[in-house]
């Protein structure tokens, strides 16, 4: 027999899940924030047990939070590829990626050793989109072909992350990085 309280509990569970997810996403944007279940619960105004019950554990919660942050980034990379040349997509996306990483650099610090299937899939999609930009820019003759695409991808990703972690954040540094890196990728001769 169903009671009127059952739908209310379900609505509460949905609300609690959203509160916990929003809290985790907010903490991911705070440099130096500790992403424990307790910290997320405190930020959400919930009990730790409620947060665990909403997601089944910290890994699942962080996977949902990080994938929620990454999904629009991956979509943006794909949109840029569809809207413009590969080189222009790469140039625009790198600037946006640095801004994202600056705002959420705690993401990388908090994820080591966690089981995050949705995040892992999105990261793979992000790498694939950047590799597609690089390959397309190579075909366009906009970037050099004497450096392996995997090396270029690693160079872009690691350097962008380093620039994003600069304290205090600096748009001038990000702009200089893009200029120097993209100039260095131009074909020689």
Walkthrough of the structure:
With 189 residues, the protein is mostly helical. It has a domain at 59-184: Tetracycline Repressor, domain 2 (Orthogonal Bundle), CATH 1.10.357. It is 76% helix and 0% strand. The longest helix is centred in the middle third of the chain and has 26 residues, at 58-83. The N and C termini lie far apart (79 Å). The mean pLDDT is 87.
Core attributes:
189 residues, mainly alpha, Tetracycline Repressor, domain 2, 9 helices, single chain
The CATH class of the domain at 59-184 turns out to be: Mainly Alpha
The share of residues in helices is: over 70%
- From the 3D coordinates, which CATH architecture of the domain at 59-184 would you assign? Orthogonal Bundle
Count the beta strands.
0
Poorly predicted residue ranges: none
Strand percentage: under 5%
Layout: helices, strands, pairs:
Layout: H1 5-28, H2 37-44, H3 48-55, H4 58-83, H5 86-103, H6 106-110, H7 117-139, H8 149-164, H9 171-185
